[in-house]
Write a structure and sequence with these properties.
heterodimer, A: about 350 residues, about 75% helix, B: about 600 residues, alpha+beta, five-stranded mixed β-sheet, about 40% helix
Chain lengths: ~350, ~600
């Protein structure tokens, strides 16, 4: 992908040299759309659509395809609307077959986006197809460090976490970190993803010393990025848990306040891991009503976005909190079961619910 | 090295040749800027003579001489010249410029001459070493001291000796470096002068040419300022026949309990329609005290004003040390606010005093304006009823449209395939808006939510809302026949009545068709196949619909007539096949070569049946 950025810069320079203001305008969108990624993802997508439409008007299919892939990514990652993200990803994959796009380096990004969609829609239900895709991508992406490989590994780790295989998720994240250490010229932001994953993994392993170290590293990397304020918020929430467990209550509260205040500033919905960290923080302090409020907020934000797996996962986590409060009724259980209807393979979730009901 | 235990203060050591090289070669991004700095020094020297010498008949003059064979470029002026002390204090001291000090001494706002002084940082002369391997300055001060010659090779040393010079003024001779040899070409020099110094009031001559190279007058100072602005726009921005030009006015800024009036020279304008209708403008060209500083400044105009561009000369703006950019400081913000206020007022006046022109302006840039109106509520309010949108009845504003549609907004978002949706809308006697441009649908949503009683009807994907159920029995033979050809068919009533059938696809039908095609031809990377297969499998239960459903129009007289005939009537099957193929062609879906061959085959077959 770094080659692609070089390609952008070269083209933009060509347009400047040729005083081709229309094409320069088309290229400019690629350098500026990220400014909206957290503050206003819908606006980011509008910008990308403008870039795509301009590229089409100017008969620039390579540029139009770049924007098509980014639009898919925008829906999937930034707006987190998996229904639209899936449609756009399928469209991008189909478009990529056109002869005129032969050799376009962004095709793997389209596959990675499609992969991310299925990991977020229903990781358990689509597990066989997802695994097959990852196995093939592993052969198609050149070996060694590279942005496409990092993105694939990130989705792979997400899959294993969703399936509950923590040792495997950890191994992938650590392999990713080791591979990143061999890389040159790749943006530091790519290191953030596995380190961020390690926070969630460490918490679920109950290793809070490790959690603190990864949370601080996540924050350090994210602070350097202009468009990763929500990751900073998540990292602070993980740190707050550690401080609370160490008895530093005032520091813990201060950190959690910073995390929530920071996340409120953005339109983008934080990742499920942020809500996990926030809810676990309240649960650690025995404040179950607040944990319940976090899950309610998360579910409200997930509604209607086609994120069936994370939605059921959040419902089950909410049910756990309700049980702690002694409020988990059969009506609540029925509501959780209703959400199973969207899943291809609800069995593992049903098992979790059965365990909960006892 | 050992350090004293007691605290002590030390001075930085300077490696002067290295520092000179860094400043001269890295402060500026282009060697052409070096010429600008030297012209500016010459100009400031002339202003200084006007200010300090008090000579009634003084006529400033700057002359450039090209000696390509000797690789020399000479910039001479008849300005104030320098004394030995001034040479030591200002010319040979980096970071201390006489002009900056002089401007501080006089009242900036009351003295028009002082306002012409450009220099500020005492760095400009260094730029001579951008162009030259050695520089020779011969100068004679108006104060009457003997002429002096200063010479340096930019290595941290200089020689200063007495010299001969009859007239007051300064000449700077550059022994041009090989890497700057392009500056010895006449056209390069002329272009650079016209870009940087066109508006400087002192005439700049080249060798013995009788006419100065620069115009010496900014367009906003011309007697016919409008014509001069249009000429400038055409020359500089290559924009022809701008739709509107708004001269900038002086503006007041608060200063303690009082306020100061700040000169804001220049103008804003709206270019004519661009080839690519979405080209964004919104940039300013900046001069400070008539000297060109930079172009494409995008932060001075409000974000919504992407259909506007302009030029400004304002002393409040502060250049960076290289004077190729503007500092985005408090003054910048003040200028930005003043510009926004003037533009807002100007557009409001235009809308109220010249409504037709305002409409034309909005229509020419409607794609761009619609995009920004979605983001900016105030701007949206100003233009929402003026933007003309593409409809099946031509360009219409939303009030014009709503008058025809009776309060609902019907729109299509697909680039292709909107034909039959528009046809159905027209069947109900309402125009359909083409919302294929990305910003139109959000604009319509914003409009509908701001207008009580206005509803939105997206036509693509919801085409069936135009159909009324109808009994299938009278058309049973047709439905049966079509199903025998694996064509899903249903009966409905819709307008216009002379349309016998329409083929309706679900929204993701094309995605499905392409995905199936990719899977069956194995024409995609192996990594994509499993997930694409998952997508197709999930939707296979709706396979029939994804191939399209042919809706037979029960209100179509021809179809009713055909339905009465027996399927074995000559021409009946041909007519049915033709109906299907025509509906397929007008459904706006992409056809594969195989589909096209089949369509021709069946239409030919139908024609043959009919003619036999």
């Amino acid at each position: 992908m770094s080659d692609v950025w070089e390609w952008f810069r070269d083209r933009a320079q060509e347009y400047i040299d040729a005083e081709d203001v229309d094409r320069f305008e088309m290229a400019r969108v690629a350098f500026e759309f990220h400014a909206y990624s957290e503050s206003d993802p819908a606006q980011m997508i509008q910008e990308l659509k403008r870039g795509r439409d301009l590229a089409k008007q100017l008969n620039e299919p390579w540029w139009a395809y770049l924007y098509e892939v980014w639009i898919a990514l925008g829906y999937q990652e930034h707006l987190q609307d998996l229904r639209q993200g899936l449609q756009e990803s399928i469209h991008a994959v189909n478009e990529g077959r056109k002869p005129i796009l032969h050799g376009h380096p962004w095709k793997i990004a389209a596959t990675n986006t499609l992969l991310a969609c299925y990991v977020r829609i229903d990781p358990i239900g689509y597990e066989p197809a997802i695994r097959q895709c990852i196995a093939e991508l592993d052969k198609e992406i050149p070996p060694g460090p590279g942005e496409h490989r990092f993105v694939m590994m990130e989705h792979y780790s997400d899959l294993e976490r969703a399936l509950g295989d923590l040792p495997k998720a950890e191994r992938i994240a650590l392999d990713y970190i080791a591979l990143f250490d061999q890389s040159r010229g790749i943006a530091n932001a790519y290191l953030m993803f596995p380190v961020q994953d390690m926070c969630w993994i460490s918490y679920h392993q109950g290793d809070f010393q490790k959690l603190m170290a990864y949370a601080m590293q996540t924050e350090e990397i994210a602070q350097e990025e202009e468009d990763r304020r929500l990751v900073v918020a998540e990292a602070k929430a993980w740190q707050a848990i550690c401080e609370r467990l160490s008895g530093n209550e005032s520091k813990a509260k201060s950190l959690i306040r910073m995390a929530t205040n920071l996340s409120k500033r953005f339109t983008k919905v934080p990742d499920p891991e942020y809500f996990d960290a926030l809810a676990y923080f309240h649960q650690t302090g025995g404040d179950f009503p607040l944990a319940l409020a976090v899950r309610d907020e998360q579910l409200a934000k997930l509604a209607g976005k086609g994120q069936f797996g994370p939605q059921v996962d959040a419902l089950l986590k909410r049910a756990e909190v309700l049980q702690q409060l002694g409020q988990f009724s059969s009506a609540e259980a029925a509501a959780v079961r209703e959400a199973f209807a969207n899943l291809k393979n609800p069995k593992p979730y049903e098992d979790r619910l059965s365990q909960l009901i006892g | 090295m050992s350090l004293d235990e007691t605290e002590s203060t030390h001075r930085f050591e300077l490696h002067l040749p290295g520092l000179l090289k860094v400043l001269a070669e890295h402060l500026y991004s282009s060697k052409r800027v070096g010429l600008r700095e030297l012209i500016q020094n010459a100009h400031d020297s002339c202003v200084r003579r006007k200010l300090e010498a008090n000579e009634r008949d003084y006529e400033p003059r700057i002359t450039l001489s090209l000696r390509p064979r000797e690789k020399q470029l000479i910039i001479a002026d008849n300005g104030s010249g320098m004394t030995a002390r001034e040479i030591t204090d200002y010319l040979s001291t980096i970071g201390r410029g006489y002009t900056g000090q002089l401007r501080e001494q006089v009242d900036l706002l009351d003295s028009s001459e002082a306002a012409e002084l450009i220099g500020q940082f005492g760095l400009g002369f260094l730029s001579a070493f951008l162009l030259a391997e050695s520089v020779t300055v011969v100068t004679r001060s108006f104060r009457g001291d003997p002429a002096l010659q200063w010479r340096s090779a930019g290595d941290g040393n200089y020689d200063l000796i007495e010299s001969e010079k009859a007239e007051v003024g300064t000449s700077v001779t550059l022994q041009v470096k090989q890497s700057a040899a392009f500056m010895l070409q006449k056209h390069v020099l002329v272009e650079a002068i016209r870009e940087f110094a066109d508006f400087l009031p002192a005439p700049i001559y080249l060798d013995d040419e009788p006419q100065p190279l620069n115009r010496m007058e900014a367009p906003w100072e011309a007697i016919d300022a409008d014509a001069a602005a249009e000429d400038y726009i055409e020359r500089t921005f290559q924009d022809h026949e701008p739709l509107w030009i708004m001269p900038l006015k002086p503006a007041k800024i608060p200063a303690g309990q009082d306020s100061l009036t700040i000169a804001m020279n220049g103008f804003l304008y709206v270019p004519n329609r661009s080839v690519a209708s979405v080209r964004e403008y919104g940039a300013m060209r900046i001069y400070i005290r008539r000297m060109f500083i930079c172009d494409h400044q995008r932060d001075l105009l409000p974000p919504w004003a992407r259909f506007v561009r302009g030029v400004i000369d304002c002393p409040l703006l502060q250049p960076t040390a290289s004077r190729e950019e503007i500092h985005q400081d408090q003054h910048f913000e003040e200028v930005r606010q003043m510009l926004e206020a003037q533009l807002t007022e100007g557009l409001s006046q235009l809308a109220s005093q010249e409504p037709e022109r305002w409409k034309h302006l909005v229509r020419c840039h409607s794609d761009l304006i619609v995009g920004w109106a979605v983001k900016d509520d105030e701007f949206f309010e100003r233009i929402k009823d003026l933007v003309a949108l593409r409809t099946s009845r031509g360009l219409l504003t939303l009030p014009e449209y709503l008058e025809q549609s009776g309060g609902a907004i019907y729109f299509v978002t697909r680039e292709l395939g909107s034909l039959q949706e528009q046809l159905l809308a027209e069947g109900r006697n309402v125009p359909a808006i083409d919302a294929s441009w990305f910003a139109v649908a959000p604009f319509l949503e914003k409009y509908a939510s701001s207008q009580p009683g206005v509803s939105l009807v997206p036509l693509d994907g919801d085409i069936k809302s135009f159909f009324q159920p109808a009994p299938e029995r009278p058309f049973a033979s047709m439905v049966h026949y079509l199903r025998s050809l694996s064509i899903s068919a249903r009966v409905a009533t819709f307008a216009p009545r002379d349309v016998p059938a329409l083929l309706v696809y679900p929204q993701d039908a094309e995605l499905m068709r392409d995905a199936r095609n990719a899977l069956s031809t194995h024409d995609l990377p192996a990594s994509m196949a499993p997930l694409l297969q998952a997508y197709v499998d999930d939707r296979n239960q709706h396979e029939d619909e994804s191939l399209g459903v042919l809706y037979l129009n029960a209100s179509c007289p021809y179809l009713c007539e055909l339905a009465k005939r027996a399927p074995d009537t000559p021409g009946w099957t041909g007519a049915m096949r033709a109906l299907y193929q025509v509906a397929r062609l007008f459904s706006g879906r992409m056809l594969t070569p195989g589909d096209t061959a089949q369509a021709f085959q069946q239409l030919t077959h139908a024609l043959k049946e009919m003619t036999e």
